[in-house]
């Protein structure tokens, strides 16, 4: 057969076209596989999140049922102070916070003038209430209970990482739990209760705190009940602040300074916190008040949303809170 250059060129072009088609089909197949994998992975993750939410709600409901039971008459038996919690099912990273040995705290302490830093005036023997005794049979991590608009949850304590992804009973859960800072001991009344929780889009845990950025909402729901093992506590909101956790930045507030027994240190931190207040509240606060800080994350990793409250004073009730300028000069 005679050689025809045009025919050879046509065959070459056809082969090149077939190769391009094969490459194109291969690329499409790979992209489809990647897309399908991403969709399946997303569906699995959504399923896991949904299951975690269901389990988290179940845990909260079980504990809430115990909490809401009618409290039995308190016996005269004195409970030992709670100084530790059982080991978790998954060992969390150790913290550097030192636990106060019970034998060093057992002797009666001389009462100090401050409202904190010493034994509870109405419970010097550290008697654990009947409700909390029942709750701790469900979970030995429980140290308190928080009740406010949108939140009715146990407060747990271990370290500052375990309850980021475990529920109040210690089960693995994406929603985490509401937990007390590991550095705060309840053996004496602390100057400040630092409590953390995830800002969940579902509204679980501290997902509803952002509503308090509206002044009217914060005032309407300004009363918070925060009970611990050793005493009940009613608090009133005095600020809702978005603060920076980066030293030197605008709106930086050292929350740990609020746990200091030094009044001047607490005053300086209070000034920074209230300077970042979003609501313009007129409820006054001083360094002599016991504080409650509810802390959650925001879309900015260097920022935290803080709902700040102080304990009601002896002359105050839930419906007649003293209202003055936010900062006492």
What does this structure look like?
With 329 residues, the chain is α+β, with helices and mostly antiparallel strands. The protein has a single domain, classed as Sortase (Sortase, Chain: A). The protein is 29% helix and 16% strand. It has five helices and eight strands. It has an eight-stranded mixed beta barrel with strand order 1-2-3-4-7-8-6-5. A hairpin with a 5-residue loop joins β7 and β8. The relative contact order is 0.11.
Key features of this structure:
single chain; 329 residues; alpha+beta; eight-stranded mixed beta barrel; 5 helices; disordered C terminus
CATH superfamily: Sortase
Low-pLDDT sequence parts: 72-80, 84-113, 325-329
The fraction of residues in strands falls at: 15-25%
Helix coverage percent: 25-40%
Structural class: alpha+beta
Short structural summary:
This protein has 329 residues and is an alpha+beta fold. The protein contains five helices and eight strands. The model is unreliable at 72-80, 84-113 and 325-329 (pLDDT under 50).
């Amino acid at each position: 057969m005679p050689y025809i250059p045009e025919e050879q060129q046509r065959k070459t072009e056809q082969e090149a076209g077939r190769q391009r088609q094969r490459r194109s089909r291969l690329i499409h197949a790979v992209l489809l596989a990647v897309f399908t994998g991403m969709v399946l992975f997303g569906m699995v993750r959504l399923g896991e999140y949904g299951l975690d939410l269901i389990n988290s709600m179940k845990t909260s409901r079980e504990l809430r049922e115990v909490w809401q039971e009618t409290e039995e008459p308190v016996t005269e038996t004195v409970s030992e102070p709670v100084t530790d919690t059982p080991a978790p099912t998954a060992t969390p990273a150790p913290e550097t916070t030192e636990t106060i040995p019970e034998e060093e705290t057992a002797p009666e302490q001389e009462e100090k003038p401050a409202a904190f830093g010493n034994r509870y005036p109405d419970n010097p023997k550290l008697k654990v209430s009947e409700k909390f005794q029942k709750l701790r049979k469900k979970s030995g991590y429980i140290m308190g209970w928080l009740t406010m608009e949108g939140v009715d949850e146990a407060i747990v304590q271990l370290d500052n990482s375990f309850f980021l992804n475990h529920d109040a009973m210690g089960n693995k859960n994406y929603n985490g739990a509401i937990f007390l800072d590991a550095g705060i001991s309840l053996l004496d009344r602390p100057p400040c209760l630092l409590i953390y929780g995830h800002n969940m889009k579902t509204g679980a845990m501290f997902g509803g705190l952002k509503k308090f950025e509206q002044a009217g909402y914060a005032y309407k729901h300004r009363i918070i009940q925060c009970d611990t093992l050793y005493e009940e506590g009613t608090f009133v909101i005095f600020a809702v602040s978005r603060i920076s956790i980066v030293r030197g930045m605008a709106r930086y507030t050292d929350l740990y300074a609020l746990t200091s027994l030094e009044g001047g240190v607490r005053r300086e931190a209070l000034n920074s916190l209230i300077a970042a207040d979003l609501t313009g509240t007129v409820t006054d606060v001083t360094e002599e008040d016991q504080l409650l800080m509810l802390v959650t994350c925001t879309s900015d990793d260097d920022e935290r949303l803080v709902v700040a409250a102080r304990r009601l004073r002896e002359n105050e009730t839930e419906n007649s809170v003293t209202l003055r300028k936010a900062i006492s000069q």
